[in-house]
Design a protein that fits this description.
Strand content: 15-25%
CATH superfamily of one domain: ATPase, nucleotide binding domain
Strand order of the largest sheet: 14-15-13-12-18-19-20
Shape: globular
Helix content: 25-40%
Largest sheet: 7 strands, mixed
Length: about 550
C-alpha cells in the first residue's frame, strides 16, 4: 500500500479505530480494515486514578477530557504520518479496565463516583455471594460492589436503574446503547456456562431473593447491560457521541461499533490467546493471567475468577491489583540519579529501563535473598486489604544492583505466581503463554523471567507494547468481516479463525523457553515471598 493509498483509506474510512482506557494511559490505535496488523496512527493521554474518601476513582470529567486528548493525538499522528486526517472509520471499538462500579439513576446521572477494580472494600459482599453462588466472586466484580452498597445501606441504592463498567459507560454515551461484550460482562456477573452469551439466570434469581426487602427494588436483569458476542453489531456513533469524542466537529456520526470489551479480553485478542490451552499475561498497573480452559475446574478457588473470551469461551483468570507501577517508580529513581550525575542515558527512559533490565540478568537466580513487594494497593490473593511496597532482605542476603533489579522484576510476578500455582494443582495445561505490556518492550528480560516464574514457554509478539488498544481495534475490524461472512448471523463468526488466518498468520513471535536455573531460582524466591507476606501485613497494620 502506497502513501497515497493509505491517505485515501484514512479519508474514506477503510480503517478500524480502537480506544482503550487503561489504568495510567488512554490509548487510541488506528489500523487498516483489511489488514489489522498495519497500525496507521496512534494517540495517547496520561492519566492517574485518585484516592478519594478511601476509594480509588477517576472522575467522568477526566474520562472525557482524556478520550478527547487521545483521539486528537491520533488525528494529529495520522496527519503527520500520512497527510490525512480521519473524519470517519469503518468501525470503532471501546475497551477499558474491567470490573468496578458505575451506577446511574433513571435520568442517566451518576449516583456515586466511579469505583474502580482497585478497590478492596467489598470483602463482606464477595464472601457472601461466593458462598451463595458456589463459585468465586472477586472483590472487584461489579456485583460485589453493588451488593456491598446494599449491605451498607448506601442512600443511592434505591435510585439505581443501570450499572455498567467503564467500557460500557463510554460505549453507551457514544452510541446510546446499553450493551457489553461478553468478556467484560463476565466481570460483572457470572455467565451461563451453557449459552455462553447471557447472565446465569438461576443465580440472578437467587440474588433477587437475597436482596428482597432491601433498598434495591429493581430485579438484577434490568440493571445490567445486554450481552453481545464478538462480531455482533453494537450500535452506531450518534451525533452527540461524535461531539463528545471530537469537539472540533470533524468526526461524522453513523460509524458502526463492535461490542465494548474489558482489557482482559482485548489482551487475549492482542496475543491470539483465545483457544483452549493458550493463555496470556497482561502487565501494567495491574497484572493478570488468562488461561482458556478445555474443561471446567474441579472446584472454586478464591484466587481464580471464571470469565470468558470475547467469543464466550470459558477462561480462568488470575488477577492481581498490583503490577509494574512499583518497578517503574524504582526505575524513575535511578533515572533521576543518572540525570543529576549528567549521564546522557537519563535523556531516554527506554535506555534506563534497558540498562537496569540487562543488569537484572546478571543477578543470582533467586535474587540473592532479596524480596520486593509491589503492593501499592490491596491484594486479595496475598490477603492484603491495603498495600505497602517493601524491599526486604536478611543480613546474609547479597544486596547488589543486579539482585535488586531481579527482585523487583520477580516482585511483579510474585502474587500472580501464587494464583497460577492453584491452576497448576488443578491440572490446567498450558501449551504457551503470550505476554504483552510495556514491561516486555525491553527484549528478552521480563519475558525470560516470566517463563521461569510460570515454568512455561512465554511468547511476545510485535504488538506486545501496543496491548489492548490494538486488540480492540482488531475486534472493530472483525465486525464487518463477521457480518459479511455470516450475512448478519454474526454469532456463528469464528474469532479464533479470524485471528489465525487474517491477523497472526505472518506475525513475528519470539518465544522464551523456561530456563531451569530461573525456574528453581524463582521457586526459592516465591517461598520466601510467601513467608514474608506476614511482614507485609504487619506493615499495613503499623503504617
Amino acid at each position: 500500500m502506497t502513501d497515497i493509498d493509505v491517505a485515501e483509506s484514512i479519508r474514506e474510512g477503510r480503517t478500524a479505530l480502537g480506544i482503550e482506557l487503561g489504568s495510567t494511559r488512554i490509548k487510541a490505535c488506528l489500523v487498516a480494515a483489511d489488514d489489522p496488523t498495519r497500525v496507521l496512527a496512534v494517540g495517547g493521554h496520561e492519566w492517574e486514578n485518585e484516592f478519594v474518601d478511601r476509594r480509588w476513582t477517576y472522575s467522568l470529567e477526566a474520562v472525557w477530557s482524556g478520550l478527547q486528548a487521545a483521539y486528537a493525538d491520533l488525528v494529529a499522528d495520522a496527519q503527520r504520518r500520512h497527510g490525512a486526517a480521519p473524519s470517519t472509520f469503518g468501525a470503532i471499538g471501546v475497551s477499558a479496565m474491567m470490573h468496578g462500579y458505575l451506577a446511574f439513576d433513571a435520568s442517566g446521572d451518576l449516583l456515586v463516583p466511579f469505583r474502580t477494580w482497585r478497590n478492596t472494600s467489598t470483602g463482606p459482599a464477595a464472601a457472601e455471594l461466593s458462598e451463595a453462588f458456589g463459585l468465586n466472586i472477586p472483590l472487584r466484580w461489579s456485583i460485589a460492589h453493588l451488593h456491598q452498597a446494599v449491605l451498607d445501606d448506601e442512600p443511592h441504592v434505591r435510585d439505581i436503574r443501570f450499572v455498567t463498567t467503564l467500557a460500557g459507560y463510554v460505549h453507551w454515551k457514544l452510541t446510546d446503547r446499553k450493551v457489553l461484550g461478553v468478556g467484560d460482562a463476565s466481570g460483572m456477573f457470572p455467565i451461563d456456562a451453557a449459552t455462553r452469551c447471557s447472565y446465569d439466570e438461576t443465580l440472578m434469581e437467587r440474588y433477587d431473593l437475597r436482596v428482597e426487602g432491601t433498598a434495591l427494588t429493581a430485579p438484577l436483569h434490568r440493571l445490567l447491560p445486554e450481552i453481545l458476542i464478538a462480531g455482533e453489531p453494537a450500535g452506531e456513533l450518534t451525533a452527540a457521541g461524535a461531539a463528545l469524542l471530537d469537539p472540533t466537529g470533524t468526526l461524522q456520526p453513523g460509524i458502526p461499533f463492535c461490542p465494548p470489551e474489558g482489557d482482559a479480553g482485548t489482551g487475549m485478542v492482542a496475543t491470539n490467546a483465545v483457544a483452549p490451552r493458550t493463555g496470556n499475561v497482561s502487565a501494567g498497573t495491574s497484572i493478570f493471567a488468562m488461561v482458556v480452559l478445555e474443561r471446567p475446574l474441579a472446584s472454586a478457588h478464591e484466587e481464580v475468577d471464571l470469565v470468558t473470551t470475547p467469543a464466550g469461551d470459558p477462561v480462568a483468570m488470575v488477577h492481581c491489583n498490583n503490577g509494574a507501577s512499583e518497578l517503574a517508580a524504582w526505575v524513575g529513581l535511578f533515572e533521576r540519579f543518572a540525570a543529576v550525575t549528567g549521564s546522557p542515558v537519563a535523556r531516554d527512559a527506554d535506555a534506563v529501563f534497558g540498562a537496569l533490565f540487562a543488569e537484572a540478568l546478571e543477578g543470582e537466580a533467586d535474587a540473592g535473598g532479596l524480596i520486593a513487594y509491589n503492593h501499592l494497593a490491596g491484594e486479595p490473593i496475598a490477603g492484603l486489604d491495603e498495600g505497602r511496597p517493601l524491599v526486604v532482605r536478611t543480613p546474609d542476603s547479597r544486596l547488589t544492583l543486579a539482585n535488586f533489579m531481579r527482585a523487583q522484576l520477580y516482585g511483579v510476578y510474585g502474587t500472580l505466581a501464587l494464583g497460577m500455582r492453584v491452576l497448576a494443582d488443578e491440572g490446567v495445561a498450558i501449551d504457551r503463554m503470550f505476554a504483552h505490556g510495556g514491561i516486555f518492550r525491553t527484549a528478552g528480560v521480563a519475558q525470560r523471567f516470566l517463563a521461569g516464574a510460570l515454568d512455561a514457554p512465554v511468547a511476545v509478539g510485535e504488538t506486545a507494547s501496543e496491548g489492548g488498544a490494538w486488540g480492540i481495534a482488531v475486534l472493530a475490524a472483525f465486525l464487518p468481516h463477521a457480518i459479511a461472512i455470516n450475512a448478519g448471523e454474526s454469532r456463528a463468526a469464528d474469532l479464533g479463525e479470524y485471528l489465525d488466518q487474517r491477523v497472526f498468520a505472518g506475525a513475528a513471535i519470539e518465544v522464551a523457553e523456561p530456563d531451569a536455573a530461573d525456574v528453581a531460582g524463582f521457586a526459592a524466591y516465591l517461598d520466601r515471598y510467601r513467608a514474608g507476606l506476614a511482614a507485609e501485613a504487619a506493615a499495613v497494620g503499623a503504617l
